[in-house]
Design brief:
The chain has eight helices and ten strands. By secondary structure, it is of the alpha+beta class. The protein has a domain of 32 residues. It is flat and about 75 Å long.
């Protein structure tokens, strides 16, 4: 898909001539990859250099390394959802959960199980010779008598009344947000994705790398020291430890 086609989809989506689902199908259903377009090839030829900008190597072939990758559609949806959720919380829009509803749910926990009296976790082990008899695998608390907690074979250990009530309210708030703003959230995620795609296609976040540096960056999350051009360091750093001793900062 080229930029002209993408801008037509964006215009149609903004004017509600197509739905977010139709826009997503056109964008994510396209079999044409960005690097297969004429725009990409021309832009790459104009930007690619003869020297690696990491290690100064001139050994071909050189590649155009993207220093920024657009987030996935799923992550964009999560981010947009989080904005709506925060707004509802600021407006104190928590749904009401009656105590009777919480109690009805807790009445399902008719069995009991042994648990740690300190942290409530069921990962405890009984020892044959050592004292105290029990030891918790979670908090390492040692005790003689385990705490008996309400339990359900499918639901697990019963949460506390207040924790359960907050959880039920949160789930209702989540359902409310998706029922009320779900289409808007997905539409905004698609539009953000289009902006990200344009940025990616512009190649403004690229550098020329040799094959070795591109492999190290993508697969090992490593790069050569930007000062001595020799020692491998994590990509978040600027200089290796030896160069740091000479006064260069470790992180930019």
């Amino acid at each position: 898909m080229n930029l002209v086609e993408l801008e037509k989809i964006e215009e149609a989506l903004r004017s509600d001539k197509i739905t977010f689902a139709e826009a997503g199908e056109k964008i994510y259903g396209s079999t044409t990859k960005p690097w297969q377009t004429d725009h990409w090839k021309k832009k790459r030829n104009a930007l690619i250099k003869d020297c690696c900008e990491q290690c100064d190597s001139t050994k071909p072939p050189m590649v155009l390394q993207h220093m920024w990758q657009p987030p996935s559609y799923r992550n964009r949806v999560r981010n947009e959802y989080a904005l709506f959720l925060e707004n509802e919380k600021l407006n104190n829009s928590f749904p009401n959960v009656r105590d009777e509803e919480v109690q009805i749910y807790l009445e399902q926990f008719t069995d009991t199980k042994e648990s740690c009296p300190a942290c409530g976790v069921r990962s405890i082990s009984k020892r044959k010779t050592m004292k105290p008899t029990y030891r918790c695998a979670n908090c390492y608390h040692e005790f003689d008598e385990p705490k008996m907690v309400p339990y359900h074979p499918k639901l697990g250990v019963a949460p506390s009344f207040n924790v359960l009530k907050r959880g039920m309210a949160n789930r209702r708030l989540q359902d409310y947000i998706w029922d009320t703003y779900g289409d808007e959230i997905r539409k905004r995620a698609i539009l953000q994705g289009i902006d990200d795609y344009k940025r990616y296609m512009s190649m403004e976040d690229t550098k020329t790398f040799c094959k070795r540096c591109a492999y190290l960056w993508d697969m090992k999350r490593k790069k050569v020291c930007e000062v001595c051009k020799d020692t491998l360091i994590p990509i978040e750093m600027h200089a290796c430890y030896k160069c740091q001793e000479n006064g260069h900062p470790s992180v930019l």
